[in-house]
Amino acid sequence: MTKIVLQKEAxxxxxxxxxxxxxxxxxxxxxxxxxEKNNEIFKKLNDNIWEIRVTYEGLHYRLFSFxxxxxxxxxxxxxxxxxxTQKTPKKEIxxxxxxxxxxxxxxxx
Length: 109
What we know:
Elements: E1 3-6, H1 8-15, H2 19-33, E2 42-44, E3 50-56, E4 59-68, E5 74-83, H3 90-108
Parallel strand pairs: 1-5
Antiparallel strand pairs: 2-3, 3-4, 4-5
């Protein structure tokens, strides 16, 4: 089973959403933890960054994530957005990259 850890900003994002959206996000996270491999819910964006994809009532929610295989199979979710365009904003991918680098730097300290 894959473990998913939410960093502070990801938790705050989820907490800001309606109860129904939070339930759907929890459902998708459980599917990923149980090993479901499906580009519709968990998609690789580049070498390091993935997105957990949730659609509810026509809105697209994204949690940016990366793998930490030093701890077994663990996905770390950095932050989330409500996606407003077809393309994933490059600045959000960059932010996830920066948070990933910070995570591994702090881990070495």
